[in-house]
Structure formats: C-alpha cells, structure tokens
Amino acid sequence: MTDSTAGPRALATLTDIRVFDYLCKAPATRTRIAADLGISKPTASQAISRLQENGLALAIERENEPKRGRVPEHYALDSSFGHLLALCLQAEFLQVRATDLAGQTLVDRLYPLTAQTTAAEVAQMGAREISRVAAELGSPLLAAAVSQSAPVERDGELRVLATPIFPSSGADLAGQFADGVPVLLDNDVNWMALAEAGDQADSLMMIYIGSGLGAGLVIDGALHRGKHGTAGELETQVVGGINLREALAEEGMFQTRVLWEKLADERNWPAFLAPFGQVLANLIGFVDPQRVVAIGPGLTPELCAALESELNRLLPKPVHVQLSALGTEAAARGALAGARELALGNLWENYRAR
Questions:
Q1: Which of 123, 73, 143, 83 has the alpha carbon at shortest distance from 107?
Q2: Complete domains list, the chain, with CATH
Q3: In whole angstroms, how far apart are CA 207 and each of 92, 196, 241, 250?
Q4: pTM above threshold 0.70
Q5: DSSP-derived pairing of the beta strands 291-295 and 204-209
C-alpha cells in the first residue's frame, strides 16, 4: 500500500476489499454483509459508503421484494466502474470476451479463422473489437489480456514468435490497445494451465494437442515460464536426433493445421503417440506433476487413455491423464483472471479510503 493508505486508512481499505469481494459474489444488505464477514453494522455501512464514493458499489432494487415497512437496501458491484477484456487467438478462431470485475460476462464473440487469414487481418479484427466493446459497454477498460497460440518470448520486451502451423499466429494483438491500458500477453497454454489450476497450490501439467503441441507448467501453484518464457514448448524437444515437429512431419502429421484432423483417425495414433509419448514422458519424469490434464479441439477420452497407456509404458510410476472440461473456455478464463488480478492490484494501490 502507498503512504496514503497507511495506518487507519490501511485498515479501512482492507475492510473495503473484503466487502467488495463479497459483493462480487452477490448483492446483499448491510446487515447480511456485517453478519457474514463478522464485522459491525456501522463498519459495514462505512465500507459501503466508501465503495459508493469511489464508484465501486451502488444501491439496487430487488425484484419481488416485499414493500411493507422499511425495505432494507441491497448493494451490488457497479459494473459501470469498468470492464476487463481478453483477446484469445487460436488457429480456428479469435475470441473476444469482456467481463466486469465480478466476472460477469458482458461480451463474448468468436470469429472463425481460415488457413488464409493473415496476422495483419487478425490484428485489425482485434483493434475493431477493442473499440466496439468500449462503445457497447460505455465503461473504461481497466485491464486486458491477450492469449496467443504461439510462443511468447519474455527475454526483455515481450515478443510473439510466430509458428509455421498457421500464418495468423504472430498477430500483434497486444499492440492494438491504447497507451495507458495495462495489458498482459502470454501463450495460450499458459493461460489454460492457470485456469485449470484455479486456486489449488499443486503442480499441474497442461498438455495442448490441437493445431500444434504445447504444455503449461504450474509448479507448486505458480506458473513456470522459464528464463525466456518458452518453458513447455514441446515441438522443439529432441527425439531420435530430430525435434518433435520434424518427427511428426515425417509421418505426415504436422503440417499446417492438420494435426487434429489426423488424430480424428484412430489408425494414426501409434505414429503420433510413439514420439510424443517419449518427449512427454521425459518431461513428466523430470517435473513430477500431481496432475496431468489434456486439452484441445477434438480431443477425446479415448485418445487420453491411449496417451496414458503409452506414458505408463515408459514411466516408472503410473500417471493419469485427465481430459479438461474447460474446452474453449480455458484460455479466456485464464486470461481474464490475469487481467482481473492486474486491475485490482492497480485499483487498491491507488484507492482512497476517505
């Protein structure tokens, strides 16, 4: 906290944060807030007043509320305070999702992409959507996150390393936001891993099998990106003297946007699982995660079971490969969680508990 929130103001701010978090879950009366948070009614009232003064909360009318006597006021998060925005690029689509600080979805659109869609076209789509969402919602953009289906190098300035799997992968989506807007940029599988991990402080390996291959590593509850931001990149791992991408390409399985189509035919599984299982077994044996979760378009429980069998043939200790239930939700959910954390950090750092 800054000097302006030190001492008594710090205590007031901490109380306001608790009340704000409570209102993010559901509207409530001052009495209910006080009872559930274990604070006095005057303290709850003061916190509500400060949140209202700062534009974070407002009084609302409840439908079907009895009108006899004095009706207690209900309070809720004021969604007009600002919104969060995620741009999530996959080989198949560009997803645009906006929420308020409570996580309520305000905008959610998918734009299909083709193998001919260029990076410049995707960047233009992103710029149009940023403006369109702002006009629709009429509220400030508090923070944004970009999920990129390509490696994101973090050695100095963040830089997307376009993948040859699909031409639009290198689109400069993060560069479309106005100056002053806090923007997070990360690889899509990292966002997926964070969404899957949630609040659990365990170790998780998220495996993506789709247009390309990748892994997100959450170790003891923290995302591991590595020195250059490319930890978990599976395609460059060496197997049989060549990298995994080359090994799969020799089997005709790793060309432009064709991998998941090949895997739809069970007869292609052995050619895929032999090199992929070897690379993945080495990584699992080294990291030793508590959970291994697979995600990707068209990924089936049967393919997960086949991968699990191949891994257990190679590993000294058995591992279970779980199919993620998040699907296309994963990247957007993780990205928006990151944007929310960034926005709230800025909010409370500059908050004034008058």
A1: 83
A2: 3-77 (1.10.10.10), 82-192+329-348 (3.30.420.40), 200-323 (3.30.420.40)
A3: 18, 11, 23, 22
A4: yes
A5: parallel
